[in-house]
C-alpha cells in the first residue's frame, strides 16, 4: 500500500487572492512547504488547511475544492470571518500564543473564543477523517498550537492511526501553562498523537512536567504510556533549506537587489533585523539597545545603519497595532536625536519582501541582530548564517530556541539593553579570523541539520510503531472480546467459581485522599449481586485496614482479605484468620513511623496511614516530581534500615509501604488449601504491584487481569476501572 502524508496546518501552502478575473492562488513560501516538498518521492502528500478568506457566495466551493486538489494536492477548510476571528485571532493568538511565549500580560480571554477553537478543531478533524482513504497507508502530521485538540479527536475514531504533532512555538514551564483556561483539555488533545515533536529539549521537559502536574501522568523522557496508546516525545529543531538559499544567493537576480540595498546603506555598515511584527520578537527592546550603542559610540551614528524589516502580522489584534505604534515612535525618536546626520541611523521597512530581496539584505549585513524575548526556534538566524556562510556576525537572544544549537553566535539576554549594546560593539571589533571561525562553525551546523533532515527525522520516528519501546504490551495481552466471552461462558458453566479483586484502582478510581474512595451505589449493587451467585465465592483483597473496609463493605456477604492478606475471611466464615501469630507490633514499627514522620515534614502534602502491622506513606497530594524524588530517597533509607528485619518495602502508586515479610495478597491461596476448597474457575484482578503476589500465587488455569499499562505477571490487561466493572457486570 502506498504511503500518504496528510499534512494539517492552520493555513494551506497556497493562499487565495481575489483578483478582477476571479480567484487566483499564491504559493506561500513557508519553510514547511519547502521541507515537505523534498519528501514527495517518498510519500504522496495531501494538505489540509484554511485557504484564506474566500467569499463562497461569489465562488463555488466545489470548484475551489477541485482546483485546489488538482493543482496543489490541497483540501480547503473553509472558515468564515467570525470563525477566524474567534478561533485564530481569539483563542489561538490572544490566549495560547502569549502564554506559550511567557507573556500572559498580552492575554485577552473570552469564553466564546474557546468554544470556537474547539468547534474549528472539530471541523478540521472531520475533514481529515473524510480524506482518509483505505487504499493508502495514511499518516497524519498536524502542525502547531492552533490545532492542539485534533490528535485526540482523530484517535477516538481511528485508535490505530499514525498521528504526528509538531509544536512550532515554545512549550513553557507548567507554572505558566497552568494559566491557560482549559489546559487539561488541550493537553489531552495533543496526547492523542503517536509522536509529539518540539524544537528543544527544554520545551519537551516543560511539556512532560505539565502533563505530570495537570493530568497526573508520569512519563519517560521519550515516551508516555496512556490507556489507549503510547505517545512518543522527541526533539526536532526545525531548520531551513540551506542548499536552496545558496542557490538564491548565487542567482543572477541578486545584482538588482544588491543595488537597492547599497542605495539604502550609502557606504555605511549594515546591522540587520528581520521579524514578523510581533511582541515576542523584542523589537522595541532591541531598538532601545541600539540607541544606547549610539550614545556610547556617537561616531557610529554616521557609519552604521540598522535596517529593521518588519512583516505586518495579526493586525486585527489590538496589542499588535499598539506594538506597531510603539516601534514607529522609537524609530522616529532615535532618528530625531541624530537628525544632524545626513542619513538617519535606522531604516524601517514595514512590509513583506520577496525572499530574493531579503537575501540581498542578509548578504550585505555585517551584523544580524536577532533578539526575541521568546521564540520557538527563529529561522531568521539560520537564514542569515546560510547566506553568509563564512562572514558576518550573528547576535542571538538566549531565549530563542535557535540558541540551543547556535552557540558560536554572540549570545545575549534580550531584556538587557546594555548587554545588546556591548554585543554590537564586540561584533564590530571581532578580528576577521574570529568572525570566520564562528560563522564557519555555525554554517556547518545549519547545513547539516537542514530542513530536510528535520522532516526526515520526525517521520522516521513516526514510522516506529507506538508500542515498539513498550515492553508491557508484549507480555500481557489486552483482554479482547473473544477472551472476555470465554471468561463469561466459563464462569457461567463453573460449578464452583472464585473471583478476587483488588479495591483501589480496580473497583474504584484512585483518589487523592484515601478516605474519598468510598464505594458508590452502583458498585455496592454489583458486589451484592455477585455475592448472591450460588456458584461463586467473591472476595475483595486490599491493602486497606480493617476499620476502613468493614465500614464500607462489612455489611455485604463477600469475602475480604485486608492489609495485604494479614486478615482473611471468606463470606461464609464467622471468624477472621490472622496470617501471623505475632500479637505485638513488629519491632521495626516505631522506628519506621519516625522515618515516615521525618519525610512527611520534608514533603508538604504527604501523610502517613497506620495499619495494624504495616505503615504507608502517601504522597499523592505532594508536588509530583518532588514526591517521586523523596519516595526514592525514603525507599533507599528503609531498605538499608530494614535489611535484617522481618519486613519488606513496597513502592506502589504514589505510596511507600512497609509490611511484615511473608504477608501478602497471595496468602489467600494457602488459606484455600487449608480449607480444602476446590474451584473450577478462578479470576483475579488488580492494578498495583501488591497484586502481583496474587497473580503469582493463583493456579495456572486462573484468569489474571492487570488494570493499567505497567509491567505485570498477569495474563491479560484491561485499561480502566470502568472496564473491570463492565466485565463483572457481564458475570451477574
Ligand atoms: P515565526 O514566528 O514566523 O515562526 P521565524 O522562525 O523567524 O518566526 O520565521 C520567520 C520567517 O519569515 C523566516 O523564514 C523569514 O525569512 C520570513 N520573514 C521575516 N520577515 C520577512 C519579511 N519582511 N519579508 C519576507 N519574509 C520575512 C514560527 C515560530 C518560530 C519558528 C517557526 C518555524 O514563532 O519560532 O522558528 O515558526 O517553526
CATH superfamily of the largest domain: Glycogen Phosphorylase B
Strand content: 15-25%
Helix percent reads 40-55%
Q: Give the biggest beta sheet.
A: 9 strands, mixed
Q: Supply Rg.
A: 32 Å
How confident is the prediction overall: mean pLDDT?
92
What is the 3D form?
A: elongated
Q: Please state the second-level CATH architecture of the largest domain.
A: 3-Layer(aba) Sandwich
Distance from N terminus to C terminus (CA atoms, Å) equals 46 Å
Biggest sheet: strand arrangement: 17-29-28-27-18-19-20-21-22
Counted up, domains total 4
The total strand number stands at: 29
Bound molecules: adenosine-5'-diphosphate-glucose
Which ranges are low-confidence, i.e. pLDDT below 50, for 5 or more consecutive residues? Answer: 468-473
Structural class determined from secondary elements: alpha/beta
The total count of helices amounts to 27
CATH class of the largest domain: Alpha Beta
Under CATH, the topology of the largest domain can be stated as Rossmann fold
Structural write-up:
- Residues 468-473 have low confidence and may be disordered.
- The longest helix is centred in the N-terminal third of the chain and has 21 residues, at 111-131.
- Helices cover 43% and strands 20% of the residues.
- Helix 10 (254-265) crosses helix 14 (355-364).
- It folds into 4 domains: 2-235, Rossmann fold (3-Layer(aba) Sandwich), CATH 3.40.50.2000; 242-455, Glycogen Phosphorylase B (Rossmann fold, 3-Layer(aba) Sandwich); 474-579 and 663-731, HAD superfamily/HAD-like (Rossmann fold, 3-Layer(aba) Sandwich); 589-660, Trehalose-6-phosphate phosphatase related protein, domain 2 (Alpha-Beta Plaits, 2-Layer Sandwich), CATH 3.30.70.1020.
- It is elongated.
- The chain has 732 residues and is α/β, with parallel strands linked by helices.
- Strands 17-29-28-27-18-19-20-21-22 form a 9-stranded mixed sheet. Strands 5-4-1-6-7-8-10-9 form an 8-stranded mixed sheet, sandwiched between helices. A 6-stranded parallel sheet has the order 13-12-11-14-15-16, with helices on both faces.
- The chain binds adenosine-5'-diphosphate-glucose (ADQ).
Amino acid at each position: 500500500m502506498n504511503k500518504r502524508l496528510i499534512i494539517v496546518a492552520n493555513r494551506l501552502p497556497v493562499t487565495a487572492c481575489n483578483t478582477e478575473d476571479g480567484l487566483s492562488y499564491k504559493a506561500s513560501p513557508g519553510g514547511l512547504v519547502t521541507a515537505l516538498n523534498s519528501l514527495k518521492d517518498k510519500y504522496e502528500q495531501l494538505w489540509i488547511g484554511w485557504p484564506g478568506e474566500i467569499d463562497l457566495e461569489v465562488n463555488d466551493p466545489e470548484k475551489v475544492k477541485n482546483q485546489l486538489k488538482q493543482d496543489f494536492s490541497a483540501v480547503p477548510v473553509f472558515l468564515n470571518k467570525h470563525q477566524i476571528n474567534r478561533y485564530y485571532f481569539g483563542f489561538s493568538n490572544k490566549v495560547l500564543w502569549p502564554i506559550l511565549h511567557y507573556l500572559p500580560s498580552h492575554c485577552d480571554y473570552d469564553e466564546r473564543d474557546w468554544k470556537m477553537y474547539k468547534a474549528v478543531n472539530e471541523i478540521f478533524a472531520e475533514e481529515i477523517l473524510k480524506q482518509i482513504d483505505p487504499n493508502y497507508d495514511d499518516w497524519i502530521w498536524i502542525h502547531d498550537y492552533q490545532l492542539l485538540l485534533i490528535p485526540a479527536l482523530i484517535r477516538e475514531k481511528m485508535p490505530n492511526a499514525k498521528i504526528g504533532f509538531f509544536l512550532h512555538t515554545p512549550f513553557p514551564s507548567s507554572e505558566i501553562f497552568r494559566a491557560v483556561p482549559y489546559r487539561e483539555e488541550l493537553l489531552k488533545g495533543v496526547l492523542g498523537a503517536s509522536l509529539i515533536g518540539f524544537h528543544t529539549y527544554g520545551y519537551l521537559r516543560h511539556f512532560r512536567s505539565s502533563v505530570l502536574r495537570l493530568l497526573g501522568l508520569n512519563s519517560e523522557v521519550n515516551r508516555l504510556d496512556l490507556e489507549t496508546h503510547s505517545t512518543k516525545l522527541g526533539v526536532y529543531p526545525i531548520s531551513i533549506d540551506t542548499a536552496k538559499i545558496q542557490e538564491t544567493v548565487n542567482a543572477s537576480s541578486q545584482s538588482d537587489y544588491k543595488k537597492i540595498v547599497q542605495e539604502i546603506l550609502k557606504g555605511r555598515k549594515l546591522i540587520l533585523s528581520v521579524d514578523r511584527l510581533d511582541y515576542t520578537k523584542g523589537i522595541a527592546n532591541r531598538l532601545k539597545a541600539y540607541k544606547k550603542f549610539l550614545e556610547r559610540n556617537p561616531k557610529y551614528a554616521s557609519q552604521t545603519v540598522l535596517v529593521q524589516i518588519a512583516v505586518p502580522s495579526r493586525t486585527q489584534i489590538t496589542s499588535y497595532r499598539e506594538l506597531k505604534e510603539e516601534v514607529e515612535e522609537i524609530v522616529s525618536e532615535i532618528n530625531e536625536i541624530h537628525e544632524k546626520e545626513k542619513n538617519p541611523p535606522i531604516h524601517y521597512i514595514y512590509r513583506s519582501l520577496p525572499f530574493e530581496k531579503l537575501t540581498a539584505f542578509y548578504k550585505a549585513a555585517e551584523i544580524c541582530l536577532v533578539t526575541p524575548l521568546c521564540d520557538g526556534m527563529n529561522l531568521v538566524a539560520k537564514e542569515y548564517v546560510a547566506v553568509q556562510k563564512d562572514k558576518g556576525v550573528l547576535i542571538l537572544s538566549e531565549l530563542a530556541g535557535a540558541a540551543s544549537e547556535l552557540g558560536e553566535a554572540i549570545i545575549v539576554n534580550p531584556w538587557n539593553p546594555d548587554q545588546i549594546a556591548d554585543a554590537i560593539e564586540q561584533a564590530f571589533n571581532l578580528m576577521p579570523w574570529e568572525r570566520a571561525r564562528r560563522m564557519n562553525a555555525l554554517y556547518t551546523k545549519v547545513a547539516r541539520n537542514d530542513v530536510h533532515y528535520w522532516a526526515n527525522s520526525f517521520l522516521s520516528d513516526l514510522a516506529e510503531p507506538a508500542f515498539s519501546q513498550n515492553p508491557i504490551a508484549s507480555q500481557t495481552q489486552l483482554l479482547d472480546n473473544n477472551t472476555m466471552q470465554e471468561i463469561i461462558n466459563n464462569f457461567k458453566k463453573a460449578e464452583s467459581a472464585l473471583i478476587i479483586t483488588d479495591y483501589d484502582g480496580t473497583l474504584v478510581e484512585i483518589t487523592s485522599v484515601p478516605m474519598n474512595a468510598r464505594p458508590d451505589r452502583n458498585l455496592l449493587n454489583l458486589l451484592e449481586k455477585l455475592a448472591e451467585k450460588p456458584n461463586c465465592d467473591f472476595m475483595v483483597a486490599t491493602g486497606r485496614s480493617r476499620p476502613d473496609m468493614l465500614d464500607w463493605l462489612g455489611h455485604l456477604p463477600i469475602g475480604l482479605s485486608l492489609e495485604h492478606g494479614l486478615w482473611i475471611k471468606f463470606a461464609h466464615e464467622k471468624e477472621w484468620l490472622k496470617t501471623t501469630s505475632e500479637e505485638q507490633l513488629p519491632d521495626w514499627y516505631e522506628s519506621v513511623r519516625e522515618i515516615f514522620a521525618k519525610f512527611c515534614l520534608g514533603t508538604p502534602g504527604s501523610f502517613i496511614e497506620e495499619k495494624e502491622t504495616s505503615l504507608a506513606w502517601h504522597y499523592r497530594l505532594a508536588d509530583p516530581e518532588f514526591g517521586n524524588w523523596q519516595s526514592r530517597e525514603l525507599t533507599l533509607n528503609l531498605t538499608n534500615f530494614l535489611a535484617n528485619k522481618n519486613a519488606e518495602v513496597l513502592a506502589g502508586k504514589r505510596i511507600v509501604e512497609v509490611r511484615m515479610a511473608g504477608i501478602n495478597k497471595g496468602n489467600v491461596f494457602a488459606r484455600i488449601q487449608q480449607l480444602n476448597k476446590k474451584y473450577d474457575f478462578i479470576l483475579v484482578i488488580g492494578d498495583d504491584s501488591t497484586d502481583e503476589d496474587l497473580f503469582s500465587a493463583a493456579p495456572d488455569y486462573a484468569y489474571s487481569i492487570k488494570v493499567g499499562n505497567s509491567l505485570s505477571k498477569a495474563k491479560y490487561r484491561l485499561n480502566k476501572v470502568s472496564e473491570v466493572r463492565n466485565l463483572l457486570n457481564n458475570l451477574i
